[in-house]
């Protein structure tokens, strides 16, 4: 498995832990992500479902790096998460720079790595007959 695939599996696993917090440990979600706002159980479950979807994308993409559509959707999930948390910090003030730093590390690293690897996961040895 390629290094990017292993990275996506790691990030997917970390996201899976966040799913647990969204559904079953709302206090940890509040403390670890949205520490400057009130987080209801509905917000927690919504966060959990959104994170479960992005976790699924990470795992699927890790095993199918050559699938351009899946690669793009997974890449965009990182872009959306990055900008979501950036606006939560800069505009809405619901999170702290400490909480934002973890998101920036994982989403930022993933965005840059996926951009650098954009065309490198194409099937090899396919020649077109002319």
Structure, described:
Belongs to the ERG28 family. Keywords: Endoplasmic reticulum, Lipid biosynthesis, Lipid metabolism, Membrane, Steroid biosynthesis, Steroid metabolism, Sterol biosynthesis, Sterol metabolism, Transmembrane, Transmembrane helix. It is a multi-pass membrane protein. It is found in: Endoplasmic reticulum membrane. This protein is mostly helical and 130 residues long. The protein is built from five helices and no strands. It has one domain (3-116). 75% of the residues lie in helices and 0% in strands.
Distance between the termini: 33 Å
Helix and strand run: HHHHH
Rg over CA atoms, rounded to whole Å, is 17 Å
The number of distinct structural domains comes to 1
Task: Name the helicity range.
Answer: over 70%
Q: Structural class, judged by helices and strands?
A: mainly alpha
Tally the helices: what do you get?
Answer: 5
What portion of the residues fall into strands of 2 or more residues? under 5%
So what's the oligomer here?
single chain
Tally the beta strands. 0
**Outline:** globular
Mean pLDDT score = 89
Largest sheet: none
Could you list the spans in which at least 5 consecutive residues all have pLDDT below 50? 125-130
Main location: endoplasmic reticulum
Membrane topology: Multi-pass membrane protein
Keywords: Endoplasmic reticulum, Lipid biosynthesis, Lipid metabolism, Membrane, Steroid biosynthesis, Steroid metabolism, Sterol biosynthesis, Sterol metabolism, Transmembrane, Transmembrane helix
Transmembrane segments: 6-26, 47-65, 71-92, 99-118
């Amino acid at each position: 498995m390629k290094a990017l695939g292993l990275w996506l599996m790691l990030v997917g696993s970390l996201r899976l832990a966040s799913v647990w917090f969204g559904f079953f440990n709302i206090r940890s979600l509040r403390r670890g992500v949205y520490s400057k706002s009130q987080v209801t159980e509905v917000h927690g479950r919504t966060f959990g479902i959104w994170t479960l979807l992005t976790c699924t994308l990470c795992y699927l993409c890790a095993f199918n790096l050559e699938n351009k559509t899946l690669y793009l959707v997974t890449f965009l999930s990182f872009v959306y998460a990055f900008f979501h948390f950036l606006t939560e910090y800069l505009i809405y003030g619901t999170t702290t720079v400490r909480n934002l730093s973890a998101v920036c590390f994982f989403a930022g690293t993933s965005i840059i790595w996926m951009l650098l690897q954009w065309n490198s996961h194409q099937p090899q040895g396919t020649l077109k007959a002319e």
